[in-house]
Amino acid sequence: MKTEVGKIEVKRDVRRYAVLLAVAAACAGACAGEWAFANAKLSPDPATGREVDGRLEMSLPSKRACAWWEKEFPVTPGKGTRFTATAEIALGAGEAAPYNDVMLFVTWYDPTRGNRKGARFYQRDFMRYTDKGNVRAFDDTFAVPGDCNTVRVEFIAKWHKMDVKIRDVRVETVDAPKPRKVRCVVGNPHEKRPKSWDNPEAVVKGRLKQIEDCLTNIFAHVEHPDIILFSEVFADTGSPCPERTAERIPGGPSFALAARYAVKYRCNIAMNVRERTDAGTFHNSTFIVDRTGRHVGTYRKTTLTSGEYMAGLLPGDDFGVFDLDFGRVGCLTCWDHWFSETAKYLRRKGAELLLFPLAGCAPDHVELTFPARGIDIGIPTLVSMRQGHLPNGIIDRDGTWLVKTFEDST
Q1: pLDDT for 50-91, tens place per residue?
Q2: Helix (H, G, I), strand (E, B) or coil at 365
Q3: Is residue 99 within 8 Å of residue 156, measured between CB atoms?
Q4: Rounded to two decimals, what is the model's pTM?
């Protein structure tokens, strides 16, 4: 039996986009090589900005304000560009968190047209960041796309009452990041409905046997895979007694199985289960184990279906990214993926590969929604479902299915 596998390159530069950009008049000041401050013209509560001792400051009086600083820098074709900066954020009364509403993004320009009305641009990229207290640190490196020689850097603050001080802005020419080849596999044992749930432990055991047979098949046909993804809640889907079949992470049988094979074959493995916590809560959760069998992290599905929240499952409270030895991965489960902002948020947090486990969907989602997310965020996606009439596979950053399989891997 042949298991299909696709190889992808995960790299910081995404494909070229030929898009028309109408540059607003407010951007004109940036062409002179100085930082230019701009306000959202229609905002009823204008923000203020000033440069003080090398800092770029913005003061937003309410949630209805939006403002930004921008400047153009020269870049070198064939090289890389590293962007770093820190933003000190002081929230106003009643504000809980800045979320991703203080951001740094860049636009790479076509040198033959320049930055003027009607100019083309290659692509736009959002910088990943880390937060420590009220300080947000931006640090990201991209390969300069094509023969681009100009990049526009923009710091934007929006939709919160806050004061932002941006300092230590650096745009440096460095070696271009080297592409990384990642061998990705999706495990797709097909769901087999049990004749009865009179013995739920036996049903779960049988489904784990399907997963183990799938892993055996994968390692018999694929040399040194880097990551394997399995579908949504495979082990106990349909269980009428989740209090008996849900698992702890770590500590459950699915985790034990994944860790054993991860260590034996030196491979990262991601599985989705119905999780039961020591606090007595239940979640739809995807865990990742690395090549040593270590628990890297768990993502709890945030956008639950009506059936899940009516059954008493609780949503997660964040969209996380996880560091593996080949790069950073994020996860969206089923309905999470239906909304573009969830995927964009993961991309802004630095995800370079998206894991997408789900039970199943309408066929038009396969051809429309799934590829659209790849285009939205410019990173590859691994898709794993458990229904035989729907494909599993790998979608590239431009929305193209690199590989599909309908095969029952057992």
Answers
A1: 999 999 999 999 999 999 999 999 999 999 999 999 999 999
A2: helix
A3: no
A4: 0.71
